[in-house]
Design a protein that fits this description.
Blueprint: E1 17-22, E2 25-32, E3 35-40, E4 54-63, E5 66-77, E6 84-86, E7 103-104, E8 126-129, E9 132-135
Antiparallel strand pairs: 1-2, 2-3, 3-7, 4-5, 5-6, 8-9
Length: 137
């Protein structure tokens, strides 16, 4: 799997997202609770753009009348039909074995930690002789 630099961390504010095109695929990158998550920008139901999805909390009920919220902002609710997915792995909440959004690994690295690319500018030797700068080509 090839690595792609898609944004600086400041380009995606907390609670926001950014859609990027990688090899012809729309991928949406979310910034939630200090972490970044990348998913295919398409609901598996009818193709709604997940960049428009609501980022909601997981809501569970251990007993009737008692509700607990957790993982605030980490659940996606499709903007068209309300299907819900786990942002960490793309798994649906209603049918986790069959319905899933493609998720992609995300890493945040400092600029100096990024691997040096294969692109190198051609250079030429330079000499100073008396008052003249001489470039050899």
């Amino acid at each position: 799997m090839a690595r792609h630099i898609v944004a600086t961390t400041s380009e995606i504010p907390p609670g926001g997202n950014k859609v990027v095109d990688i090899a012809g695929r729309d991928i949406v990158v979310f910034h939630v609770n200090g972490e970044f998550f990348a998913l295919l920008n398409r609901c598996p139901h009818e193709g709604a753009p997940l960049e428009k999805a609501a980022c909601v909390a997981r809501l569970t009920s251990p007993e009737p009348g008692v509700y607990e919220r957790s993982r605030v902002g980490e659940m996606l609710r499709c903007p068209w039909h309300g299907w819900e997915f786990d942002m960490r792995n793309g798994q649906s909440w209603f049918d986790p074995k069959r319905v899933k959004i493609r998720s992609y690994p995300v890493a945040v690295e400092r600029g100096e930690e990024l691997q040096k690319g294969p692109y190198v500018a051609e250079t030429f030797p330079v000499h100073v002789e008396d008052s003249y700068v001489i470039v050899e080509v």
